[in-house]
Specification:
With 143 residues, the chain is mainly alpha-helical. It is 71% helix and 10% strand.
């Protein structure tokens, strides 16, 4: 019975995070800010892997150890895949396609850095891992 409650909590967190992300994308789309539509991913991802994970840990459904980070990584991957599927279905086929290229040179070597929505989603995922690590350290130091 406990497993079904925890699965239900995880699914509800995922659905809530997707709703938050789509509403944020709709707000940006409505104000013609389609170049930064991927920021909706940040709002949903924050709700899912920081707020949602803390709820699961405080309720005792998830242990606050390495399982926390595995859970966050899996949730992030699932959320980003669903985000990349749902947003183009709702807002149009080529809504996440704009790509910016930055040419960087370090010591004679040139790097072509591609700044597209996938790059930003990767940065957002890394930020969420850092936030979870900080929360992990905070709760460990309190015990």
């Amino acid at each position: 019975m406990v497993e079904s409650n925890s699965v239900r909590a995880v699914v509800m967190n995922l659905v809530s995070a997707l709703i938050i992300a789509v509403v944020a994308c709709y707000f940006l789309f409505d104000f013609k800010l389609t170049q930064v539509l991927y920021i909706g991913n940040l709002f949903g991802l924050y709700f899912l892997v920081v707020f949602g994970t803390e709820i699961l840990i405080e309720s005792g459904k998830l242990q606050n150890n390495y399982k926390r980070f595995v859970f966050v990584i899996v949730n992030t991957i699932i959320f980003d895949v669903l985000f990349l599927i749902l947003v183009p279905m709702i807002f149009g086929k080529h809504i996440l396609d704009p790509v910016d290229n930055i040419l960087l040179s370090f010591g004679g070597f040139e790097y072509n850095l591609v700044l597209n929505s996938t790059f930003y989603m990767t940065i957002f995922a890394l930020m969420m891992l850092v936030f979870n690590y900080l929360l992990y350290r905070k709760t460990r130091s309190q015990n």
